[in-house]
Amino acid sequence: MPDRSEAADPAAFVPGATLRLALFLWVCEAWLARLTSDPQAPRDLVLSLAGLVAIALLPTWSVLGLRRFLPARPWRALLGAASTLPLGVTAAGVLYAPAAMERPILGPIAFLAALLLPATVCAVQAWRGGTPAAPAWRGAVFLSLATLLGWWLLQGALPPLVTLLGVLGGYAVFVGFARRRVTSVLLVAVGFVFGGLPVRPLDVSWDDAAPPAGEGRPDVVLLCVDTLRADTARSLASYRRLAESGVEFPRVQAAGPWTLPSMATVMTGLPPWSHGAGSGPGWKYVGLSDETPVLAELLSRAGYDTAGLIHNSVCGEAFGFHRGFRVWRSDDSMTRWALPRTRKTHEARPFLAHVATALGLTGRRPFRTADDLVDEALQVVAARREDHPLFLWLQFYDVHFPYRHAEELSGVPWRRRMELERGDADLFRADPFWRSDEGQALLHRAYAAEARRVDRALVRLLDGLGPPPPRGRVIVLTSDHGEEFFEHGGIEHGHALWQELLAVPLVIQGLKGRAPGTVEDAVVAHVDLAPTLLAAAGLAPPPAERPEDRMPGRNLAAALEPRPAFSENLLKSDAPWDAEWAVRDDDWKFLYGPGPERVRVFDLARDPGERRDLADDPGVLERLAELVRRYAKRPPRVERAGQAGGEAAMRALDQAGYVGGADAGGG
Questions:
Q1: Cβ atoms of residues 153 and 99 within 8 Å
Q2: 3-state secondary structure of 492
Q3: pTM of the full predicted structure?
Q4: For residue 573, what is the domain's CATH number?
Q5: Residue 599 buriedness (CB in 10 A; 0-12 / 13-18 / 19+)
Q6: Which of 11, 245, 320, 565 could disulfide-link to 288, CB 3.0 to 4.6 Å?
């Protein structure tokens, strides 16, 4: 039955009805985001609520004010179209990213269709004398269809039946109460409750597939702080604490300047051209082959309980890193199919929060942080089995661009803080401020602040681990790559092979045969970590028929002879394997390419900033000619069919910000 306001004037009830519909849509959006991802930031929920309320009221009030100036039918049609704007915007936010993932041009088409379709239907209805507002049931049906279509585009299948029934049931309840004014207050409360539901508890349960390992096999804790430079790491309390009680390796070269090739090397002990994971020709990203043994599999077969807690989706299931872990949680598994979102990131946020970030009005929210990761790690430690050694891998992401806690920095102008939190790499490259001394200092300051947040969490973890068990414990603290702050004209990582991108920290506590406080001066590399951890567990590297499948690294617990370290695989290159690669031999650094004839030579002892190219010095080249020729004949890359190419890999890279754009965090 129509209420009194509708009976007296069919148009008078439109703002109230549109507002209640907007509140319902806001609840649906918060519920969708939480259902497919992690808890929503309160500021994002407030921003979205305010935006949808404004979209519901301002256009309808404006059209009501035009009543005296327009004929009845056009005016009613315009009012009907205005009343559907909250529905159109919400549905457009759900559909835009999934459609754009199929084909970029489909994103704008889906956006316009979501806006225009309900507006046209309601305008025609009002023109013919019907109610000049979208009925509640129509809004429920339209958003249901948009949600199902978006889910199908992302996942290739419809959502589970229980989810579908839940959606339809919730909409049915709303339709039954849509005209009751108390619904507005109830909807706001429900939205904040649904959007803020905590992450499901970590399920720490071990199977008995492998027998308990022998008493001599220590626990292994691998701590990787994504994007942590070596020079920054040395100032952290956690690094100093492990260095004082373990072994410090101040000259470490990353396998590559971005996460996928480097962490694949850490987990396999193979160089990038052997394991094949990374960026391939034509921007085709591939993960680890199922045929390539990974560290967790080898340790699990030997009786280890294995747990991986990952905050970078590039180390997730899409690239094969989950194999061998009995307890596993990654952002890849939590947010890969997140709704609503944008094409540039898989963060599930209300659509208007994404829009505000793209416009530079707000930053990107802090999501799962180092403290969350440590909380879960301590749950794993508390639930460990005493008769099984533990392998625990933590991948921290806080230090990676953008700097989402820039609001905690003092004395930073609002505009610059928003840019730091937004993380638009193209903006940083284009704005001369960020290349100035002041801008670079601010970048370093924001980066260091994020590193200190991780450091505090790491110290809490080290405290929580307690004394080593009788079987012993090996703790590794390292990084996958560094970060450039315009030292050589670039920003972020993945684009070059300078030392600010390849020099990573490494300290190892608990290596037998190494005295506490030892500083190892030899150049070491990511390829050395897997054989070192296997040796600590009393295991030999897996046998391999082909030479390229054998681990070339060495046990860092033993005396080390000089050996060169290789780095390769650029993220943003049409030929990432062969266009450019680097070799470090003691203090000499060689950069090969781009181009087959280009060689650059640097003496890192005298020129750590790589400013003076010695390739044209006849004396240097004469002394190093043999080395140059030998390194230029490196083993050829092995073509592998990574298990995770195509859409899944691209989605994971999008989520981590590795595929560029305004919302991306950079490569």
A1: yes
A2: strand
A3: 0.87
A4: 3.40.720.10
A5: middle
A6: 320
